[in-house]
Amino acid sequence: MSAPEPPAEWIDGPADDLLLLCDHASSHVPADIDLGIDPRLLDLHIAIDIGAADVTRGLAARLGAPAILGTVSRLVLDLHREPDHPNLVPKSSDGHVIPGNLPIGTEDRLLRFHLPYHDFIAARIAAVRPALILSIHSFTPRLEQGGGDRPWEVGVLYNQDERAARIAVPWLAARGLVTGDNEPYSGKLLNATLNRHAEANGIPSIAIEIRNDLIRDPAGVARWTGVLADLAGVLRGAL
């Protein structure tokens, strides 16, 4: 029997007012799971939020902030979905069929990956309640299956709690960045992790979506780490 997967990657940090999350940090597929796909698909946005983990690690180091990162590809199980979401274990993604997922249910992977990850986050928040949670994601400039170009350089996603978003959106736009307000998709429809761990606890939060062509190299990662570190400072001072 293979060793159990770690529920999350934990980066410790002395700051107790800020928690960083990165659900789609990894393209890892456990050795005992066969997705039946060309391995090259694991380098695409359907498997991992390209650049998001590097930005999250950079922010953690720069801000002294703790961070929790997912350790399994979203093609195995999407950590940023509700447990009963129909695409929790995706059968296809952006036009690519995932043959190994077609014959299976979700229960085993829910128990193995989803519940431990979210229990880990919940335990951290219960132990040290942050004043702000930032969730770092990236998005593809254009989907393979339909839709037009996505011109935004960065998007701010949120659901009902708009406290952090109402500061972040104009601040980013004032920096000359093409900023999406609940774009390229709405946090009112897709906000599972922050709904559960931030809004349910009354903690201000936003998901930050960076267009992935901007963070594919170290220079882009460094630039966006700096931008988001400055934004975090503004939010920490205002909330």
How is this structure best described in words?
It holds the Pfam family FGase. With 239 residues, the protein is α/β, with parallel strands linked by helices. It has a single domain, classed as Aminopeptidase (3-Layer(aba) Sandwich), CATH 3.40.630.40. The chain is built from five helices and nine strands, in the order E-E-H-E-E-E-H-E-E-H-E-H-E-H. The protein has a seven-stranded mixed β-sheet, covered by helices on one side. Strand 2, helix 1 and strand 3 form a beta-alpha-beta unit. Helix 1 crosses helix 5 and helix 3 crosses helix 5. It is globular, with a radius of gyration of 17 Å.
SSE layout and pairing:
Elements: E1 9-11, E2 18-22, H1 52-63, E3 67-69, E4 92-93, E5 96-97, H2 107-127, E6 132-139, E7 154-157, H3 165-174, E8 179-181, H4 192-197, E9 205-211, H5 218-238
Helix pairs in contact: 1-5, 3-5
| CATH architecture type | 3-Layer(aba) Sandwich
CATH topology, by name, is Aminopeptidase
- Mean of residue pLDDT? 94
Helical fraction: 25-40%
- Amino- and carboxy-terminal Cα gap: 47 Å
What's the number of extended β-strand segments? 9
Spatial strand order of the main sheet? 1-3-2-6-9-7-8
For the record, the count of structural domains works out to 1
- Which residues form runs of ≥5 with pLDDT under 50? none
Class from helix and strand fractions:
alpha/beta
The number of helical elements comes to 5
Which CATH top level class fits? Alpha Beta
* Percentage beta strand: 15-25%
Main β sheet profile: 7 strands, mixed
